[in-house]
Write a structure and sequence with these properties.
heterodimer; A: 277 residues; 6-stranded mixed β-sheet; 4-stranded antiparallel β-sheet; 11 helices; globular; B: 261 residues; mainly alpha; 10 helices
Chain lengths: 277, 261
C-alpha cells in the first residue's frame, strides 16, 4: 500500500507531546504519533517500555498527564466516561491476554459486541459471526467453550471480536504473542487486509519485527520513556541509530536497557526496608 | 503518654478507614441502583441471574429447611409436652420459621452458596480483564454485570426464604404429626389461627428482602473491589461470608426489635 496516500488523510488517532504515567511515575514523555484511516501503524519497544500504556491512553483507561490526545478529531484528554462511550463504539481492541468472557462460548464471545450495540436479527448475527470466525480460521470452533480452545485460538477469537463491528480504529495489543508461525502469518495478513478493505486505522503494539515490518506502513519505536525513532519499515531498516539497530537485530549489547528503571515508588520501598535504592 | 496517643491514633485510623469503606459501599449501592433500569431494558439478563442464583440454591435451601423443620418439630414437641400444649406445635414451628429462621438461615446459606459464587465470578472477571474489556467496548459493566446479579439476588431471596419456611413446616409436620402422633387437625388449625399475614408473614418477607439486598450487595462489592489476583479473590470470597453473615445477624436483631417490639 502506498503510505503517502493514507497519511495524507486526517488521523483518527493523534498523540502530540503526550506525557503518560501512573501516580507520580512518568512512563512515557513527549510522545507524538498518528494513525490515519487505512494505515497500519506499529508501536514497538522492549518489554516494559510503555507500549500498553499508550494503548490504555488511546482507549480512555488512562488520562495523559499533559499533551494533546485526539481521537476521531476530538480532543479527549479531559473527556468523562460518558463522553468516551460513543468514541469507544468506533474502536476495536485486541487485549494482550484476550480478555474473553469465560462464561460464554466462542460464538457468543464474538457476537457480544453485536448483541450489545446493534439490533441485528439472530440470522444476521449468525452470518456475521460465522463469517468473521471463518476469516480467522475458527468457523468450526464456534460451538466450543473457552476451556476447550488453545491459547493461540483464544487470541484469534479475541481478534474476531475486536473487528466484528468493522471499527474505524483497531488497537492490537501483542496480536502475534503465543501464535504459531502459520497463525502469525495469517493474522498479520488479516490485519493488513482489514485495514485495506475497511479503511480502518490499525495500531499494533508489538515486538515481533518480521511480521510487523511486512505489513506496517509506519513504525514507532519507544524505549527509555520516549519515542526513539519512527519511519517506514524501510527507513528504520536503513537507519544507523544504535538503539534501533540493537532492537531490530536483537543484539545483546547496546543502549536498550535491560534493567527496569528505578522509580520513586521503589525508592520509598527500599528506604522503608533500610536498603539503599 | 505516648502509648495513650498511639492508641488514640490507632483508634482514629480504624474509625476513619471504616467510615471510608462504609462511604464507598454506600456509593457502590447507589451506583448499582442507578443501573437497575436494566430490569425492563433487558429482562433476560435478570431472569438468567434469578435462575443462576435462585434455582441453583434451591436444593441446599430446601434440604436445610427440611432438617431445620425436623429439629423444630422434635425440640418443640419436647418443650411443649412439659406444659401439655403439644397441639401448639404447628404454631410454634410456623412462627419460628416465618418470622426468624426462614429469612435468617436462608440469608446465611445464601451468603455461603450464591454470595461466594458472585464474589468469585466478579473477581475473576476483573482479574481476567473482562470488566475492563467491557468498558473499552463501550459496555457499562455495572449495568451489564452487576445490576442483573443484584436484581437476581433481590428477587430470589424472598422466594428462597418462602421455600425454606414451607419445607420447614412440612418437616415439622412429618416429625410432629407423622412420627410422634400430634393431632393433625390441631397442628394445622393452631397454625392457621396464630399466624398473622401482616404481622408475621409480611414482616418475614420484608426481612428476607432486606437480607437479599445486603448479602447480594456485599458479595458484588467484594468482587468489584478485590485485588485481581488468586489471593485477592480468595480473600474477597471469605469476606463475603463473614461480612454477609454478620450483617444478616445484626440486621435481624434491629429489624426484629422494630417489627415485633
Amino acid at each position: 500500500m502506498d503510505s503517502s496516500q493514507t497519511t495524507a488523510r486526517a488521523p483518527v488517532l493523534l498523540f502530540q507531546d503526550v506525557n503518560l504515567g501512573y501516580g507520580d511515575f512518568t512512563v512515557l514523555s513527549n510522545i507524538s504519533l498518528a494513525a490515519s484511516p487505512g494505515e497500519v501503524v506499529a508501536i514497538m519497544g522492549g518489554s516494559g517500555s510503555g507500549k500498553t500504556t499508550l494503548l490504555r491512553a488511546a482507549t480512555g483507561q488512562l488520562r495523559p498527564f499533559s499533551g494533546k490526545l485526539q481521537l476521531f478529531g476530538q480532543n479527549v484528554e479531559h473527556f468523562t466516561a460518558a463522553q468516551w462511550q460513543p468514541l469507544r463504539q468506533r474502536i476495536g481492541v485486541l487485549f494482550q491476554h484476550g480478555a474473553l468472557f469465560t462464561d460464554l462460548n466462542v460464538f457468543e464471545n464474538v457476537a457480544f459486541p453485536l448483541r450489545e450495540h446493534t439490533r441485528l436479527s439472530e440470522p444476521e448475527i449468525n452470518k456475521k459471526v460465522l463469517d468473521t470466525l471463518e476469516a480467522v480460521g475458527l468457523r468450526a470452533a464456534a460451538h466450543l467453550r473457552l476451556s476447550e480452545v488453545s491459547g493461540g485460538m483464544a487470541r484469534r477469537i479475541a481478534l474476531a471480536r475486536a473487528v466484528i463491528r468493522s471499527p474505524e480504529l483497531v488497537l492490537y495489543d501483542e496480536p502475534f504473542a503465543g501464535l504459531d508461525p502459520i497463525s502469525m502469518g495469517i493474522t498479520a495478513r488479516l490485519i493488513r487486509r482489514l485495514s485495506d478493505q475497511l479503511g480502518c486505522a490499525s495500531v499494533l503494539i508489538t515486538h515481533d519485527v518480521n511480521e510487523t515490518f511486512a505489513i506496517a506502513d509506519r513504525v514507532y519505536i519507544v524505549g527509555q520513556g520516549q519515542l526513539k525513532a519512527s519511519g517506514t519499515p524501510a527507513e528504520l531498516k536503513a537507519t544507523t541509530d544504535p538503539y534501533v539497530e540493537q532492537f531490530l537485530n536483537g543484539l545483546p549489547d547496546g543502549p536498550v536497557a535491560f534493567d527496569y528503571p528505578v522509580t520513586p515508588a521503589f525508592e520509598r520501598w527500599a528506604r522503608g526496608r533500610g536498603i539503599s535504592p | 503518654m505516648n502509648v495513650l496517643l498511639q492508641s488514640i491514633a490507632t483508634l482514629g485510623a480504624w474509625v476513619r478507614t471504616n467510615l471510608i469503606s462504609l462511604g464507598k459501599f454506600a456509593r457502590f449501592f447507589f451506583l448499582v441502583l442507578s443501573r437497575c433500569q436494566v430490569l425492563w431494558q433487558r429482562p433476560r439478563l435478570t431472569v438468567a441471574q434469578i435462575h443462576f442464583i435462585g434455582n441453583y440454591s434451591l436444593v441446599i435451601i430446601a434440604v436445610s429447611g427440611l432438617f431445620v423443620g425436623f429439629v423444630l418439630g422434635l425440640q418443640g414437641y419436647y418443650t411443649l409436652t412439659r406444659y401439655g400444649s403439644e397441639e401448639a406445635l404447628g404454631l410454634l414451628v410456623a412462627l419460628s420459621l416465618v418470622r426468624e429462621l426462614g429469612p435468617v438461615v436462608t440469608a446465611l446459606l445464601f451468603a455461603g452458596r450464591a454470595g461466594t459464587s458472585l464474589t468469585a465470578e466478579i473477581g475473576l472477571m476483573k482479574a481476567g480483564e473482562q470488566l475492563a474489556a467491557m468498558e473499552v467496548m463501550a459496555v457499562d459493566p455495572v449495568k451489564r454485570v452487576l445490576a442483573p446479579r443484584f436484581l437476581g439476588g433481590f428477587f430470589s431471596m424472598p422466594i428462597l426464604a418462602a421455600v425454606f419456611s414451607m419445607v420447614g413446616i412440612i418437616g415439622g409436620w412429618i416429625v410432629g404429626v407423622v412420627l410422634i402422633g400430634v393431632d393433625e387437625g390441631a397442628f394445622w388449625s393452631q397454625m392457621q389461627d396464630g399466624v398473622d399475614v401482616l404481622d408475621d408473614v409480611l414482616n418475614g418477607v420484608i426481612k428476607s428482602i432486606v437480607f437479599g439486598i445486603v448479602v447480594t450487595l456485599i458479595a458484588l462489592y467484594q468482587g468489584w473491589q478485590c485485588r485481581p489476583t488468586p489471593e485477592g479473590v480468595s480473600r474477597a470470597t471469605t469476606r463475603t461470608v463473614v461480612a454477609g453473615s454478620l450483617a444478616v445477624l445484626g440486621l435481624d436483631f434491629i429489624l426484629t426489635a422494630l417489627m415485633f417490639g
